[in-house]
Amino acid sequence: MSTVQSLAKNYRAVYFGKNWTASNIKEQLEDVTWQEATKAVYGLNTIAVLLNHLHYYTRVATKVLEGGPLVGSDKLSFDHEPITSHTDWVQFKTIRYEEAEKFAGLLEKLEEDTLWKNFGNKDYGHYYRNLQGTIEHAHYHLGQIVYLKKIIRQ
Description:
The protein is mostly helical. It has helices at residues 3-16, 25-29, 34-37, 47-65, 86-108, 127-153. α1 (3-16) packs antiparallel against α5, α1 packs parallel to α6 (127-153) and α4 (47-65) runs parallel beside α5 (86-108).
């Protein structure tokens, strides 16, 4: 298995399962209601905000993988459309899962030697650093989502 195939596999696994943590984003969110997803506790980000935050960076990286510029802002990564119903929540998740699959598909098609080229610009390091970081970022926020879900349900 090539490095890009491994990265794509690991990215899919954090979203859709079969990773070494035995937990994934889709499974964790499966039974979360829209009210739980938007409930703020202890001044922390909501589950919906965290999922959107992850996908903000997935969208930024996707644009780079499609040949576009690296354009993003941490400040914008927490903003998302309102979720006020079950339908909104289902659509919100569906879009993010589709984005995750699109990202993984583009990643699989990446040439191996591209992994060591600058990702957008030299300040952000090479592709590998950023793509692996995207996977680590997803695992980090998956852990937060799991804790928030437990806190909200207590």
